[in-house]
């Protein structure tokens, strides 16, 4: 019955109408377009009926025009409950607004503290963080992941060595470590230069000291290259700090395996975001109901707890990002596989060598093919600095 | 004048094949078994007790008798009676 819909919120009153021919009063109410229900006869001159709470004033007005006694028998619904609590609309509105404000304020960033850095760096970090959305006054939900911020700030701000962002309630503590140009430590004492590994010397660049080895000479690991003892005869001999670079040809072998069939994923850059609230196991979407499920995607879920004052609510704000990705299957021919293998080995080797080294020559020593893989044994000829300082023991 | 109007209505009903209760202000009474009686197009409640209900309508009255009557709903033009219905009677003036 449509009358009963929302009855609890509207509230209803059951009244007793006393007087001669109480039906007449019902007709009057009807004429005023007041719905009445659950009408029962209680006796010759008594009728029971129920009306909406909102029609009470209209009923009172009507009663004045007739000689009926109206008794209130029973009431039901929210308006009466609120009345019992002495709460009226303004108070409730105020309370609700208050709750909402406290809720927002509990989930806001109040302070971003940057510690451990110089003022200039602090300013730079602050600006950069603002660009990422971390600043005073924003809601915590709108923040991206802290790890991501930590990572990108190192990239975006020069001269930072490490940044840690910590969330403490409504305060974010950003701790930074600045890069200080480490002054090269010059060992004070006299030293020789010896070979760090075996090789054939190609070039000798000596700043100070007496060269012992010669160009084209083959040296073993530990052989003396530049002596720190200079002077012709015994009397004029003196100890210096031998300095310089000795470039030699050295040899490396690397083993590498390259599969003929490679499978990997690449992100296309298209992304889609969804927001939701999670209560226990159940989650409700807030924003982004429709996502194209077409194509392959990589899902990243971020959860943020929701606070009320200092208490964590059993609610979690969930941000889901879908990154579209391509599944790439690459079939290589043997030649392509070899090429990839060589490039890979080259890169690896260069990473492990010093910055002033170069690869002179490369050779495939062995190439086998098994289980859909190409196995390579490669040989590299490298030009690198093999000089290593060795202090001269002065106790002698 | 009233007569002319009635004839006009009758003509319209015949021409357009309309339900009679729409044009004439006839009551429409629907009963569901013996438990409910739904009365539309009434002109007011005359008497109501737990065993009898008398409704005014154009050109007469409708009387419903039975037991344990409760008016489940009362709106300007419709009434829903609940109880155990024995009879529905038309009383002409």
TrEMBL record, chain A:
Keywords: Membrane, Transmembrane, Transmembrane helix
Transmembrane regions: 91-110
Keyword Membrane attributed: yes
UniProt KW Transmembrane helix keyword: yes
NCBIfam families: spore_yqfD (TIGR02876)
Name the record gives this protein: Stage IV sporulation protein
Species of provenance: Melghiribacillus thermohalophilus
Automatic annotation (TrEMBL), chain B:
Pfam families, A to Z: YabP
NCBIfam families found in the cross-reference section: spore_yqfC
Protein name, UniProt field: Sporulation protein YqfC
Species in which this protein is naturally found: Melghiribacillus thermohalophilus
């Amino acid at each position: 019955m449509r009358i009963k819909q929302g009855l609890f919120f509207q509230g209803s009153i059951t009244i007793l109408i006393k007087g001669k021919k109480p039906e007449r009063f019902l007709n009057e109410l009807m004429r005023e377009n007041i719905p009445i229900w659950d009408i029962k006869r209680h006796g010759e001159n008594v009728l029971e009926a129920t009306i909406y709470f909102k029609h009470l004033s209209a009923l009172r007005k009507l009663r004045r025009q007739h000689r009926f006694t109206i008794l209130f028998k029973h009431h039901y619904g929210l308006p009466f409950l609120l009345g019992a609590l002495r709460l009226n609309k303004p108070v409730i509105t105020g309370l609700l607004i208050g709750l909402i404000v406290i809720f927002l304020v509990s989930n806001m960033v109040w302070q971003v503290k940057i510690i451990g850095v110089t003022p200039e760096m602090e300013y730079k970090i602050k600006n950069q963080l603002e660009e990422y959305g971390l600043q005073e006054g924003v809601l915590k939900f709108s923040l991206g992941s802290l790890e991501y911020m930590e990572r990108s700030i190192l990239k975006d701000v020069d001269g930072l060595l490490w940044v840690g962002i910590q969330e403490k309630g409504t305060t974010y503590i950003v701790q930074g470590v600045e890069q200080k140009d480490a002054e090269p430590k010059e060992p004070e004492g006299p030293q020789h230069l010896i070979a760090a590994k075996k090789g054939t010397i190609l070039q000798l660049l000596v700043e100070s000291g007496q060269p012992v080895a010669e160009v084209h000479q083959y040296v073993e690991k530990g052989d003396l290259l530049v002596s720190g003892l200079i002077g012709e005869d015994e009397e004029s001999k003196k100890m210096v700090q031998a300095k310089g670079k000795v470039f030699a040809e050295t040899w490396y072998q690397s083993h590498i395996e390259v599969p003929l069939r490679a499978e990997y994923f690449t992100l296309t850059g298209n992304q889609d975001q969804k927001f939701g609230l999670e209560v226990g196991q159940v989650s409700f979407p807030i924003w982004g109901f429709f996502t194209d499920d077409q194509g392959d995607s990589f899902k990243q879920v971020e959860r943020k707890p929701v606070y009320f004052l200092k208490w964590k609510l059993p609610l979690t704000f969930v941000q889901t990002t879908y990154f579209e990705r391509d599944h790439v299957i690459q079939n290589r021919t043997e030649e392509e596989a070899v090429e990839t293998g060589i490039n890979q080995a080259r890169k690896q080797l260069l990473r492990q060598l010093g910055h002033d080294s170069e690869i002179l020559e490369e050779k495939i020593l062995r190439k086998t093919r098994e289980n859909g893989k190409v196995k390579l044994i490669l040989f590299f000829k490298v030009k690198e600095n093999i000089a290593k300082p060795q202090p001269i023991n002065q106790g002698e | 004048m009233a007569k002319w109007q009635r004839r006009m209505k009758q003509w319209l009903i015949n021409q357009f094949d309309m339900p009679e209760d729409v044009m004439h202000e006839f009551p429409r009474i629907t009963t569901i078994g013996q438990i409910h009686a739904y009365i539309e197009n009434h002109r007011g409640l005359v008497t109501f007790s737990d065993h009898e209900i008398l409704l005014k309508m154009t050109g007469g009255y409708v009387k419903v008798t039975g037991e344990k009557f409760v008016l489940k709903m009362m709106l300007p033009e419709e009434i829903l009676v609940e109880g155990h219905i024995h009879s529905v009677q038309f009383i002409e003036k």
